[in-house]
Structures are given as structure tokens and as C-alpha cells.
Design a protein that fits this description.
336 residues; mainly beta; Neuraminidase; five-stranded mixed sheet; 9% helix; 41% strand
């Protein structure tokens, strides 16, 4: 029997998530490091306003969903421009509305989410070649998609707040798992928004890690929907976040983008920053990069000399993209 059959069968019997004792991690048990990026200026005639950065084989990919073509390829070592591809249109190797916030890899290809279609893509002769188109059909937006083995996907729950906080999807069918935190007053869309999280997961991993945006909380689930542990940071200020602060922009996020590698999970962490500041002054705000193990242990904390919001990690190197400096890529050797 295939693994997804086991998963779906088990999830049918998991009607609620068993509450776990919260494991507390003292942020001050890991010393904050201060590091300096190497800065590479890239050819401004080849790029306009990249929104996301990814890596594949010997390439850095910059995603520009609003331009045409939508993907530019740069040398991994020198960050020199190579070519652009991913033209918009209805042709066999063209895209419609590619999203930069989803990216997965195989040995010889990568995956992008184009509207609600996952496209498997390879690079050939300085162009992209679409190998497979897989529609992901749910009655809602797709958020925080994780590509698992055997065509299984995990994603955030419905934006209406109905059901549970994750969907597990296979071949047009899905079930849900994970209990929302209601705080005694949240329901509907407000419940989904206030419990928004950034999910780290990989095909070869048997767990996912959820880093909550507005809560001091990390949850670890296995791919069968079982809550394995909850983690919160000690030694940090209580932000006193409530839903109404989202409406006026005064809410203070704990987390930003996460990125997963085979041995570590990288997460952006914020202190003393409101949503208003993050979205209006993003080019001035320097996050803390936290490096976690898949077991939920905090390994490193790094503060860099430049602000950034998007990044990727390959071969133990961090490649980061700023908000206000689209023609610079920041690089740091993680092992230093």
C-alpha cells in the first residue's frame, strides 16, 4: 500500500491534535553573532524588481512575476547574468502567473507554483522546459505549500478558518489536521489570519516545522498530522499581539520567511518592529537570522550589516535579497 494511503487513513482517525507541553528555549542560551555580507552588484539592465530569490544547480534564480520574462538566471559563483526565461503566454513552455513564494527541487528539475498549477521545470539551452503540469485543486488560495514524496502536499488550511490549520492533499482529495489556537474569541477568517505561519518542509523529511508570524510559537508535526512538540522562546519581550492590531498595523511580527535545507531550517526573526514599519521601512529593518535543527533546537543567531527579506541557502552559502536594493545580492558563508 502506498504511503499516502496510510497517511489519509491515519488522519481520518486523528480528530483532534493532542495538546503537548510547550518546550521553552532560552534565546540567550545562544549568543547573537554579528556578521558582514559580501555584496555583489548585478546588472541592472537585466532585472527590474525581483520579489524572490532561489537556487538550482549552478544558478541563482530571481523571480519577477510582474515582468516578462519572469525568471532571470545568474551564475552561482560570480552572480553574472546568464539568461532570462519564463515568458508569459499560453504556449507549452510559457507561464501565466508564477509565484515566487514556492520553490521545490528534484535532482534535475525544480518546481514553481503558477496560479494553482505546480509546474516541474528543467533548464535546457538557456531556456526553461516544462516537464509536467500538476493542478492543485482546493476551494481556496494555496498558502505555504510543501511538496512531499509520492505526489503528497501539505499546505495551510482554508483562509475562511473553517476546519483545521493544515491541509494534506493528494490527487484532488484532501483532509485537514492541526488545531487552531482560538484565544477564546477568534473565529472565521480572523482565526486563519492571526494563526498565519511559515512552514518548513522537504520531500525527504518526515516532519514539518511551523513558525508562527504573530505568536511566540513553533510547532512540529509529522506528516501523519500528529503534533510532536510546541516550542516558544524565553528571554524575549511579550509583544501582546491581538487581532485588532493587524487592522491598524501596530501588530509586531515574530517571524518572516523560512527556508529549509536537509540538515537545518533558517528563519527570520523580528524584535521591536511593527507591520507598519516592516512594510513601509523594510529597506531599513535588519532581521535576526535564526538557524534551527529539524528537532527544534536553536543552533545559531546572526545579525547582518544589511537589511533583507528574501534569501536562499545552497552549499552552505546564504544569498539574500534586499527590499530597497534590487541590484545587489548579499552573500555569506554560513560555516564561518
Amino acid at each position: 500500500m502506498k504511503i499516502y494511503t496510510y497517511i489519509f487513513t491515519l488522519l481520518l482517525f486523528i480528530s483532534c491534535t493532542v495538546k503537548k507541553d510547550v518546550r521553552r528555549v532560552d534565546i540567550n542560551s545562544v549568543q547573537l553573532e554579528h556578521r558582514t555580507f559580501d555584496e555583489f552588484c548585478i546588472d541592472s539592465s537585466k532585472i527590474l524588481y525581483p520579489t524572490d530569490i532561489h537556487s538550482f544547480n549552478n544558478h541563482i534564480l530571481l523571480i519577477e512575476p510582474m515582468t516578462n520574462p519572469t525568471i532571470s538566471f545568474w551564475s552561482l559563483d560570480s552572480l553574472k547574468y546568464e539568461f532570462s526565461s519564463g515568458y508569459k503566454g499560453g504556449g507549452p513552455n510559457e507561464l501565466i502567473n508564477p509565484r515566487g513564494d514556492y520553490f521545490a527541487l528534484s535532482d534535475s528539475s525544480f518546481y514553481l507554483l503558477d496560479s494553482n498549477v505546480e509546474r516541474e521545470i528543467m533548464v535546457k539551452d538557456s531556456s526553461i522546459l516544462i516537464l509536467l503540469n500538476k493542478p492543485i485543486i482546493i476551494p481556496d488560495a494555496i498558502n505555504q505549500l510543501v511538496h512531499l514524496d509520492n505526489g503528497i502536499y501539505i499546505m495551510s488550511g482554508l483562509t475562511t478558518g473553517e476546519g483545521k490549520e493544515h491541509l494534506l492533499y493528494k490527487d484532488g482529495e484532501y483532509t485537514d489536521f492541526g488545531e487552531y489556537i482560538t484565544d477564546g474569541y477568534l473565529n472565521g477568517t480572523e482565526l486563519a489570519i492571526f494563526n498565519y505561519k511559515f512552514t518548513a518542509g522537504l520531500q525527504e523529511k518526515g516532519v514539518i516545522l511551523d513558525f508562527y508570524q504573530y505568536r511566540n510559537l513553533i510547532r512540529q508535526y509529522n506528516i501523519y498530522g500528529e503534533l510532536l512538540q510546541e516550542i516558544c522562546l524565553e528571554g524575549i519581550e511579550d509583544k501582546k499581539n491581538v487581532f485588532d492590531k493587524i487592522n491598524d498595523g501596530s501588530i509586531q511580527p515574530y517571524r518572516g520567511k523560512v527556508f529549509a535545507t536537509n540538515d537545518k531550517v533558517y528563519s527570520l526573526y523580528y524584535e521591536h518592529v511593527t507591520n507598519n514599519q516592516l512594510y513601509n521601512e523594510g529597506g531599513k529593518i535588519i532581521p535576526e537570522l535564526q538557524i534551527w535543527s529539524w528537532e527544534g533546537d536553536l543552533l545559531r543567531r546572526i545579525c547582518f550589516n544589511r537589511p533583507f527579506r528574501k534569501f536562499t541557502v545552497i552549499n552552505n552559502k546564504l544569498y539574500a535579497l534586499s527590499v530597497d536594493e534590487p541590484y545587489s545580492i548579499y552573500v555569506y558563508e554560513i560555516t564561518k
